Amino acid sequence: MSDQAATGEYLKCDAMGCDHFEMTPVTIEVVDKPCPKCGANLCTKEDFILFKTMSAASHSIHELILRDNPDTPLKLVATNVHNGTIKVADGPVAGKNPFPNDPADASQ
Fold first, then answer.
1. CA distance 82 to 36
2. Average pLDDT value for residue range 8-31
3. CA geometry: angle at 27 spanning 104 and 12, to 5°?
4. Cβ atoms within 10 Å, residue 73
5. Any domain includes 55
């Protein structure tokens, strides 16, 4: 299993009309990385900090649940952090963007 598959982390372009999506660990190196399709910023510093905060909180909650209830099935969820907002969807399916752009995302 690759590092990307192990983390389940990914970047997606939030620019309207751009469908760029890549499985990659979200590290400081991705801050201000331009989208290879449209050139938009894939991850701002603010979004990176919020993503890492949400990720740490999620991992802590999972550890607490499993510590007290080791047989509890956990559900993977995907989070999209953009411009200070957070969206949650069913967990990522290998290589599939859980947040495709659509007309409802016109604010992004």
1. 18
2. 86
3. 20
4. 5
5. yes
End-to-end distance of the chain based on CA atoms, in angstroms?
33
Q: Is 39 exposed, middle or buried (0-12, 13-18, 19+ CB in 10 A)?
A: exposed
61: tokens are 């909650």
- Please tell me the total count of domains within the chain: 1
The domain of 82 spans 3-95
Partners of residue 96 on adjacent β-strands? none
pLDDT averaged over the chain? 74
Domain assignment present for residue 108? The answer is no
Is 38 domain-assigned?
A: yes
Tokens of 25: 């660990």
User: Where residue 8 falls among pLDDT bands split at 50, 70, 90?
Assistant: low
Q: Which two tokens stand for residue 23?
A: 């499985």
The helix (run of H) or strand (run of E) holding residue 82 is strand 77-82
Number of Cβ within a 10 Å radius of residue 77: 12
User: Is residue 100 situated within a structural domain?
Assistant: no
